[in-house]
Amino acid sequence: MTLRLFLLILMSVSLSALAQLALKMGTTAAASARTAGVGGEVGGLVQSPMVLVGLGLYGVGALLWLFVLGRAPLSLAYPFVGMGFILTMLAGALCLGESLSATRIGGTLLIAAGCVLVARSA
């Protein structure tokens, strides 16, 4: 794997984790300003700037992922998505003040370790 390909993977996974953070922040803000009914809730989500930022980040991350898939075997590239679990967990803790228990940290690290093992077996 080239450094360029690794950086594309890292950028794509990082953008996905940032998208999760933005979507969480946007949906939380929209929920506090919610109006009655499904239409009001959907309207609040569509008008939330952070939801739109999150969707935009997902879009850019998906475009980068397409470049990755065009240059690497799927069985090699996809396990790196496991890094997103770690990044998202850290973003939730650092930016949203979410609690991190030993069980949550251990489970996330087990998922990531499994992804590394799969990637190394290719």
TrEMBL record:
What stretches pass through the bilayer? 49-69, 76-94, 100-119
A GO MF label: transmembrane transporter activity
The protein, known as: Small multi-drug resistant family protein
Compartment(s) where it occurs, according to its Swiss-Prot or TrEMBL record: Cell membrane
Membrane topology reported for the UniProt record? Multi-pass membrane protein
Cellular component terms, GO, for this chain's entry? plasma membrane
Question: What keywords sit in the KW lines?
Answer: Cell membrane, Membrane, Signal, Transmembrane, Transmembrane helix
Q: Which organism is it from?
A: Sphingobium cloacae
| InterPro entries according to UniProt | EmrE-like (IPR037185), Small_drug/metabolite_transptr (IPR000390)
Q: What is its main location?
A: membrane
Q: Which SUPFAM superfamilies match?
A: Multidrug resistance efflux transporter EmrE (SSF103481)
Q: Does the keyword Transcription apply?
A: no
Signal peptide start-end: 1-19
Matching entries from Gene3D superfamilies are given as: 1.10.3730.20
For the keyword Lipoprotein, the answer is no
